[in-house]
């Protein structure tokens, strides 16, 4: 292709293939302004986001002993920035259904408030601690596994905690290998002590002793004689060598 030059040539320079490659790479790389624009395009959770026609979520069933019918807690999530590296799954709304009409009014009010907090965005994890700190004046109860729940609201908070953990908004603290080994050692020591006690007991009372040591909970292996651990809220605190020791988290009153 010919190019007509209408002006006088005052100078020239030869562009090498290496310089052409550097210029092409510089033009292809996003500059600071382009990176700022991309960051501004990332959608964060806020109350002006409209509800999509379809949301993804999970339904959790809880059956507290204080009520006749079970509660079904549904938490729906919205996916922000789908298909990109900034994809986020955030809670959007919550529904609680039950045949029991005893708690209908405050359940409806609670779900609307929680859903409004979800849609506000920001750090919504504070709801978990606030709800788990609600105590029933009539007393709490133990759910499966021997975990103590101070109230029905606290168990609802525990369900929200599990859901936020499953979508990556909360991170459950993981025990170190040394801590897990300590708990396993404590359990072995307790089992050895119980076997020694059973062997030393009179033959006539052995069956009764073994029946007392039947495990409770959902396969947790904690004896029914265990008491509540104030650190992990699990009924797994036993007396070992004259010291209160938790078989679930490793807490020991003697340090």
What does this structure look like?
Helix 4 packs antiparallel against helix 5 (152-166). The termini are far apart. It is elongated, with a radius of gyration of 31 Å. It has helices at 17-28, 32-40, 104-120, 126-132, 152-166, 177-200, 206-212; strands spanning 56-62, 71-80, 88-98, 141-143, 147-149, 227-228, 235-240, 243-246. The chain is α+β, with helices and mostly antiparallel strands and 255 residues long. The strands form three sheets. It has a three-stranded antiparallel β-sheet. The protein has a three-stranded antiparallel β-sheet with strand order 6-7-8, covered by helices on one side. A two-stranded antiparallel ribbon has the order 4-5. Helix content is 36%, strand content 18%. The chain is built from seven helices and eight strands, in the order ααβββααββαααβββ. A hairpin with a 3-residue loop joins strand 4 (141-143) and strand 5.
